[in-house]
Every structure is written in C-alpha cells, then in structure tokens.
C-alpha cells in the first residue's frame, strides 16, 4: 500500500491549508488513518487519527483548528488546517494501518504505511 501526500506550502499565521493523502494499492481493510508531523528539531508527533468507524482523535494543540476526513470512494485522507500558527510548522506525514488481502475474502497480514511527508511552513 502506497501513500502520496500533497498540499504543503508556506502560509501566514491565521491562514488555512488542506493536506491530502492518496492511498493506492490492494488491501483488505483499513483500521485507522492518521496525520503526524515532525517540527524542526523535534520528534514526530500524532496530529489527528480516525478509526475505521469514524472516531476522531486530535492532539490538544490542534483540536478545534484541524479536521481529519476520509473519502473511501476516492481513497484519500485529508487534513484541513485552519487558524494556523507558527508552531504548526513541520513536515506532515500521512499514515494508514490496515490488513492486506488474504485468501478468499479473508484479511491477510497487517500493514502500516507512511507517506513521504509534505512541508508546512507557517510564518508569523
């Protein structure tokens, strides 16, 4: 399963961006989709996650500003970012966890795929 992230760029504080992650390849099912980010000089951190049944979780620092969405028909996962702050600067990665196809209609082994990262820079 391959992920292709896009949508990063330079934006002023208070602005908005939409990141998109295209999911390709063959799989049985998806357990969760998520966006992580890695600020300069810091470790990667979870930004938002959506479970297979639609439950959403957000980092406290982005709650009420960011929204994760999933389009199952298009196999895309988006991150809508509003009221951006300079501390939101970083490389953003999409992540998908699920099961590959097994025998017949059964799920196979699990997979955990990452996109290549897209840079978001928020200027003050």
Mean pLDDT: 96
Count of alpha/pi helices: 0
Q: In angstroms, what separates the terminal alpha carbons?
A: 37 Å
**What is the subunit organization of this protein?**
single chain
Low-pLDDT parts are: none
The fraction of residues assigned to DSSP E strands is over 45%
- Would you count the extended β strands for me? 11
Query: Helix- and strand-based class?
Result: mainly beta
What is the H/E order? Answer: EEEEEEEEEEE
Please outline the helices and strands.
Layout: E1 2-6, E2 9-12, E3 17-24, E4 29-38, E5 45-51, E6 56-58, E7 66-71, E8 76-81, E9 90-101, E10 107-114, E11 118-123
Question: Can you walk through the features of this model?
Answer:
With 124 residues, this protein is mostly beta strands. Helices cover 0% and strands 60% of the residues. It has strands at 2-6, 9-12, 17-24, 29-38, 45-51, 56-58, 66-71, 76-81, 90-101, 107-114, 118-123. The strands form 2 sheets. Strands 2, 4, 5, 6, 9, 10 and 11 form a 7-stranded mixed beta sheet that branches. Strands 1-3-8-7 form a 4-stranded antiparallel beta sheet, with no helix packed on it. The radius of gyration is 15 Å and the shape is elongated. The model has no long low-confidence stretch (mean pLDDT 96).
Give a quick set of tags describing it:
0% helix; 11 strands; 124 residues; seven-stranded mixed beta sheet; four-stranded antiparallel beta sheet; mainly beta
């Amino acid at each position: 399963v391959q992920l292709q992230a896009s949508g990063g760029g330079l934006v002023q504080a208070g602005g908005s961006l939409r990141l998109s992650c295209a999911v390709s390849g063959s799989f049985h099912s998806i357990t969760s989709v998520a966006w992580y980010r890695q600020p300069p000089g810091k470790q990667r951190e979870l930004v938002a996650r959506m479970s297979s049944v639609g439950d959403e979780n957000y980092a406290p620092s982005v709650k009420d500003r960011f929204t994760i969405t999933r389009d199952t028909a298009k196999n895309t996962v988006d991150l809508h970012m509003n009221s951006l702050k300079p501390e939101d600067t970083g490389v953003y990665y999409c992540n998908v966890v699920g099961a590959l196809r097994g025998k017949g209609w059964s799920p196979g082994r699990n997979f955990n795929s990452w996109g290549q990262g897209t840079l978001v820079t928020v200027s003050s």
